[in-house]
Amino acid sequence: MTDNRARDIEQAPPNAPEAPPTDESPAPRRVLLIQAHPDDAEFMCAGTVAKWVQEGAEAHYCSITSGDKGTADPFLSAPEIATIREREQRNACAVLGVTSVTFLGYLDATLVPDLALRRELTRVIRRVKPDALMCQDPTMRFSGQRYINHPDHLAAGEAALAAVFPSARDHKTFPELLDEGLEPHVTPEIYIYGAREADIWVDISSAIDTKIAALKEHVSQVGGGDPTERMYEWGRETARQHPDRPDDFGEFAESFKYMNLGS
Ligand SMILES: [Zn+2]
Questions:
Q1: pLDDT digits (tens, 9 = 90+) for 126-146
Q2: Alpha-carbon distance 208 to 237, whole Å?
Q3: Residue 64 C-alpha to ligand 1 middle, in angstroms?
Q4: Which domain CATH number covers 97?
Q5: Is residue 81 in a domain?
């Protein structure tokens, strides 16, 4: 335990200067996005994914469930919905230029951040070896007076953060992964989307139309209407929330809680 504590302090010295990325910072080289359901990323943060891919990043998606409860149609079975939504997610990823999509096959609306899920996500992190991990916010239980966050989003965020720290880093956690040839990996940067306390803003003005095109691939979820104006307004509102918005900052933004664990 002493050893772990010493290493934790070494990783995050309390008085270390923080240098959060700016829009002039280079894109991460390899990104892993973890989401609870197909379409979570397209709503919340796919503009940033698209922008980074345009700048040369390699992006990978991991969808913990396949969104098999996501319909009001009583004649569609859960496996049928999952098949539809996996296809829609692959199509959205093709629009964004995402390199790979992994579906872990957990059931929608029943997700809990247990050790089995943490192990699965640790496996994915050690396989992809990302420079930046994007995940949901386990503390975002509700917002305003009209929004209760989906419990799967909380569970996905909790499991992802527990996987990236400390499980993916430590040799002795889930030693069976070493037997699979999956060595420990430290992910330096973490971007938490849908965050309760955002502290960085990414200018997605060059990528918002790609984000919207990707979102439209989720036909089973948005097929009844055009999300374009809604996404433009979200992007504008997020940009307006930027407290230190540079003069040349664009019209549209996505925001994140940012963490840098070093390398
Ligand atoms: Zn969702």
A1: 999 999 999 999 999 999 999
A2: 13
A3: 10
A4: 3.40.50.10320
A5: yes
